[in-house]
Amino acid sequence: MNIYADNAATTKMSSIAIGAMLPYMEEIFGNPSSLYSIGQQAKEALEDARERVAKCLGCSFKEITFTSGGSEADNQAIISAARMGERKGKKHIISTAFEHHAVLHTLNKLEKEGFEITLLDVHANGIVTPEQVAEAIRPDTCLVTVMYANNEIGTIQPIGEIGRVCRDKGVLFHTDAVQAAGHVPIDVVAQNIDMLSLSAHKFHGPKGAGVLYARRGIPLTNIIEGGAQERGKRAGTENVPAIMGMTAALEAACGNLEGYAARLTPLRDKLIAGLRTIPYSALNGDPEQRLPGTVNFCFEGIEGESLLLLLDDKGISASSGSACTSGSLDPSHVLLAIGRPHEVAHGSLRLSLGEDITEEQIDYIIESVREVVTYLRSISPLWKDLVSGKTPHILSE
Ligand SMILES: *Cc1c(COP(=O)(O)O)cnc(C)c1O
Q1: Residue ranges of the chain whose pLDDT lies below 50
Q2: What are phi and psi for residue 126, nearest 5 degrees?
Q3: 386 near 299, Cβ under 8 Å?
Q4: Is 158 close to ligand 1, i.e. is its CB under 6 Å away?
Q5: 71 in contact with ligand 1, CB cutoff 6 A
């Protein structure tokens, strides 16, 4: 059996997305800045895509900037808010300890420039509350950036309520919605979101395309200098095929959010219930406030990497921590942020399901994980110490 269960890392492109791209590679390949017909046709397609993306988010086409993906959108949103704040003498930014590195590393850079960064603690259930945000806001706060849904554990933040707090206090609010877009409903107006990032390859679109939504009146700072594309805010010839693929994928996903959740949620919950029966395991993050397809567990006494390799032998593609941190010896900053000790955080497994997963495949995953965990424990010195009582268990049986 072959099961791709790493959709939070990237997704397979849909035939809808591929079909929407082909004409812009084969026929209408012109540069949207060129004045002849195939250039202008590409330009029209691009502007049509902008309106369609805006509709999915509930905003105006003027508020949409196409980027090379989620990382670039995060960088540009945060840098833009920082430059705006700086001009008013406001150099304090609030975020959370479990953001994606595209956010955390941009904040590190600003900190070196003299910005003060407050990273809010994340509750053990993987949620940051609006009250925490309200308490942290100061007169010199220029930005709050809180991710919509966490990429490792899948928990969904109370974005509308956090947006309300920020709007009431007159502070800009950005959300990295890369895991949320195309997976859960988003309405930037109702949720008081000032800036939002999304990425096409997380909802069956192509890699290398994303969107930065910035509410009218928010001046963007260029990350890439050059030509006057994207109203002068993002230089570089537009990736028209990818933008067309992204737009088609986003429309398809947003048109089917209810069906997607209705189909995936019971399968996700079956997976959670099954994995919970493995002794000394724990679900990471709130059981309900989570994405329809994302499940993350810790298993005591094993290494996540070995678990992944053995699952791969069984045809299951999964992940341990985020793709960006694998290869590093540090455990996931997300699991540490929700209070998992190092020893436990090392033994983590993320399974992010695709919409086409079947109940049989869920059963196969549960049995495979159980087998592999049992095997790894049987050869683990760590586990031996836990069983003999030499080191105390952290998770309960
Ligand atoms: C994947 C991801 C990103 C990065 O998006 P890219 O398009 O790969 O640059 C940023 N934030 C989150 C939460 C993600 O899951």
Answers
A1: 322-325
A2: 80, 25
A3: no
A4: no
A5: yes
* Residue 199 alpha carbon to ligand 1 centre in Å: 6
**Which residue's alpha carbon is at the smallest distance from atom 12 of ligand 1?**
178
CA of 176 to the centre of ligand 1 (A): 8
pTM over 0.85: yes
Name 156's Cβ contacts closer than 8 Å, sequence gap at least 6.
148, 149, 180, 184, 289, 290, 291
Q: Is the CB of 179 under 6 A from ligand 1?
A: yes
Backbone angles phi, psi at 118, to 5 degrees: -105, 120
pLDDT digits (tens, 9 = 90+) for 373-384: 999 999 999 999
User: Sign of the CA dihedral 34, 37, 42, 47?
Assistant: positive
**Considering the chain, what percentage of its residues have pLDDT values greater than 70?**
98
In angstroms, the CA 261 to CA 352 distance is 13
Q: Is 351 left (phi over 0), alpha (psi -120 to 50) or beta?
A: beta
Q: Among 153, 178, 195, 250, name the best residue to mutate to test ligand 1's pocket (greatest count of ligand atoms within 8 A of Cβ).
A: 178
Give counts: helices (H), strands (E), the chain.
Answer: 14, 12
Q: Which of 56, 142, 298, 324 is catalytic?
A: 324
**Cα–ligand 1 centroid distance for 281 (angstroms):** 28
Q: Are 323 and 9 in contact (CB under 8 A)?
A: yes
CA distance 377 to 380: 5
The answer to whether 373 and 27 are in contact (CB under 8 A) is: no
Residues in the chain: 397
Pairing of strands 172-176, 195-199: parallel
Does the Cβ of 67 fall within 6 Å of ligand 1?
Answer: no
Partners of 96 in the β-ladder: 120
**What does the angle CA 280 – CA 281 – CA 285 come to, to the nearest 5 degrees?**
140
Establish whether 56 is a catalytic residue. Answer: no
Ligand 1 atom nearest 199 alpha carbon: 7
Question: Which pLDDT belongs to residue 323?
Answer: 45
